[in-house]
């Protein structure tokens, strides 16, 4: 459920990513130089330590970088005439309504995607407009659509909300995540609450808390370079460690 997979699934197109990719399951690829670069990049106040707030900001920045990278990879698939922009015709060729089935895209949904993307209503998507589809948290209308999509996928009784049973038993998630999303404590989740699961922000926030817990050896709620370096190998089986590997790949050309 988590992550922007709702859109890549909707498009039905593979993202062609360029550049070096760090292998997530091999900790030897995250070198001291990688750790040093990540630590310096994310230490926004330059105090030599990473706070949870800085890690959250780093995650936001990296999602934006990833969105641009994914857009550049997908652009040739959309932009079939090679003019550097995506026309309505090209968009609809890539994002087609499917056959009549539970998971199929409807014409109405595709129309809404186009309208939400074409902000200036000029019938053309510039690269920055297409990027929003890969960074949905930057656009309220796309976020609302994503929340509705998540709701539809796990609202098995069709009452317009997601119960704890639907979320945990049918959706395969956890009680802890349900409680974190249930902001008004009414023991059910609405689209506006589920929207946080429609991007990677929700999982990234959890992973950054996990990173602090694992790497903060002196329990000061911050991570020094030495602490991050010491935790490097222990992190390789954790989701937070996998995320660091991915982020290190973005800086591969700079190292």
Automatic annotation (TrEMBL):
<keyword id="KW-0677">Repeat</keyword>
<dbReference type="GO" id="GO:0005509">
    <property type="term" value="F:calcium ion binding"/>
</dbReference>
<keyword id="KW-0479">Metal-binding</keyword>
<dbReference type="InterPro" id="IPR011992">
    <property type="entry name" value="EF-hand-dom_pair"/>
</dbReference>
<feature type="domain" description="EF-hand">
    <location>
        <begin position="148"/>
        <end position="177"/>
    </location>
</feature>
<protein>
    <recommendedName>
        <fullName>EF-hand domain-containing protein</fullName>
    </recommendedName>
</protein>
<feature type="signal peptide">
    <location>
        <begin position="1"/>
        <end position="24"/>
    </location>
</feature>
<keyword id="KW-0732">Signal</keyword>
<keyword id="KW-0106">Calcium</keyword>
<feature type="domain" description="EF-hand">
    <location>
        <begin position="66"/>
        <end position="101"/>
    </location>
</feature>
<feature type="domain" description="EF-hand">
    <location>
        <begin position="203"/>
        <end position="238"/>
    </location>
</feature>
<dbReference type="Pfam" id="PF13499">
    <property type="entry name" value="EF-hand_7"/>
</dbReference>
<feature type="domain" description="EF-hand">
    <location>
        <begin position="30"/>
        <end position="65"/>
    </location>
</feature>
<dbReference type="InterPro" id="IPR018247">
    <property type="entry name" value="EF_Hand_1_Ca_BS"/>
</dbReference>
<dbReference type="InterPro" id="IPR002048">
    <property type="entry name" value="EF_hand_dom"/>
</dbReference>
<dbReference type="GO" id="GO:0005783">
    <property type="term" value="C:endoplasmic reticulum"/>
</dbReference>
<feature type="domain" description="EF-hand">
    <location>
        <begin position="105"/>
        <end position="140"/>
    </location>
</feature>
């Amino acid at each position: 459920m988590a992550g922007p997979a709702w859109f890549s699934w909707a498009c039905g197109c593979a993202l062609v990513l360029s550049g070096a990719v760090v292998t997530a399951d091999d900790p030897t690829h995250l070198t001291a130089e990688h750790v040093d670069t990540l630590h310096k990049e994310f230490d926004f106040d330059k105090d030599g330590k990473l706070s949870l707030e800085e890690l959250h900001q780093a995650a936001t920045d990296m999602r934006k970088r990833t969105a641009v990278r994914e857009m550049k990879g997908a652009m040739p698939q959309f932009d079939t005439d090679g003019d550097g922009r995506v026309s309505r015709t090209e968009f609809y060729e890539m994002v087609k309504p499917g056959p009549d089935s539970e998971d199929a895209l409807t014409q109405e949904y595709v129309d809404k995607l186009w309208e939400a993307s074409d902000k200036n209503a000029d019938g053309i998507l510039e690269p920055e407009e297409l990027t929003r589809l890969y960074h949905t948290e930057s656009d309220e209308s796309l976020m609302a659509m994503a929340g509705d999509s998540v709701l539809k996928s796990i609202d098995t009784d069709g009452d317009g909300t997601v119960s704890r049973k639907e979320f945990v038993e049918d959706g395969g998630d956890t009680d802890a995540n349900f409680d974190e999303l249930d902001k008004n404590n009414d023991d059910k989740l609405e689209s506006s609450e589920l929207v946080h699961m429609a991007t990677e922000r929700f999982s990234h926030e959890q992973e950054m808390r996990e990173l602090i817990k694992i790497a903060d050896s002196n329990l000061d709620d911050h991570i020094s370079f030495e602490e991050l370096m010491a935790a490097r190998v222990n992190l390789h089986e954790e989701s937070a460690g996998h995320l660091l590997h991915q982020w290190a790949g973005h800086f591969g050309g700079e190292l």
